[in-house]
Specification:
By secondary structure, the chain is mostly helical. The protein is 78% helix and 0% strand. The chain has helices at 2-33, 39-52, 71-83, 87-113, 117-128, 131-137, 143-163, 166-182, 187-200, 205-217. It is flat.
Length: 218
């Protein structure tokens, strides 16, 4: 039992190290070359600056910010307000932290579902060197934040499935809501959660119905 605990602590430590490596890689690349921008990036950054200056959800051209969800520029604005870091710079820092957390969260899921710790570490390493994820993290876009909430949702729902507890229900519902506020496609997670509760929410029908209502309401 002691050896199993030591092995599990070691495995957690190793995936945390992989996550830190991912964070440092993105920080190094964005500090060296700057964060990548697109037309959507310009909108996000301008809205974040306007929020910090008390001008509300206004884009660079003076129009209201309506086409994209608001959470990503809100994050950049909060960082700017608290730490006085311009959104063009903080976007790279935020993405670096999120990329590390994505690696760590994916590693936790692998550890919980793969019998081989070696396979779990190998799978986590594949996330670290994923070209698509790295490219997303190098751009001032909401994809990395959305993927983080998606991984968080998966881990929290997995905990709810195993323990059937209210705290997990509350947290995975909040994660789904935050994903929706990051990218509108996140609304799918709400309906996946309802279906998941119906399938794995225990054997008592009344509790299932209560959990479905609470999750959907939240």
């Amino acid at each position: 039992m002691i050896n199993e605990d030591k092995t599990r602590i070691l495995s957690y430590t190793l995936i945390a190290i992989l996550g830190l490596c991912g964070t440092f890689v993105i920080i190094f690349l964005t500090v060296s070359n700057g964060v990548g921008v697109s037309p959507d990036s310009v909108s996000y950054i301008s809205v974040a600056r306007n929020l910090s200056n008390g001008n509300g959800f206004i884009t660079y051209d003076g129009y209201p910010f309506l086409l994209q969800p608001p959470l990503y520029p809100i994050f950049l604005s909060v960082i700017n307000t608290i730490f006085n870091i311009d959104p063009l710079l903080s976007a790279g820092i935020l993405n670096a932290l999120l990329f590390g957390l994505i690696i760590f969260g994916t590693g936790l899921f692998f550890l919980n579902h793969l019998k081989s710790i070696l396979l779990a570490l190998l799978g986590t390493s594949m996330i670290l060197i994923s070209y698509v994820l790295i490219q997303s993290a190098l751009l001032a876009l909401s994809e990395t934040l959305f993927i983080f909430f998606l991984i968080l949702y998966i881990n929290l729902f997995d905990r709810y499935k195993r323990k059937n507890e209210f705290t997990s229900l509350l947290l995975f519902s909040i994660a789904a809501s935050l994903a929706c506020l990051t990218r509108y496609t996140g609304v799918v997670l709400i309906f996946i959660g309802v279906l998941g509760i119906f399938l794995w929410g225990g054997e008592i029908l009344k509790k299932k119905n209560t959990d479905i209502f609470l999750s959907f309401f939240l």
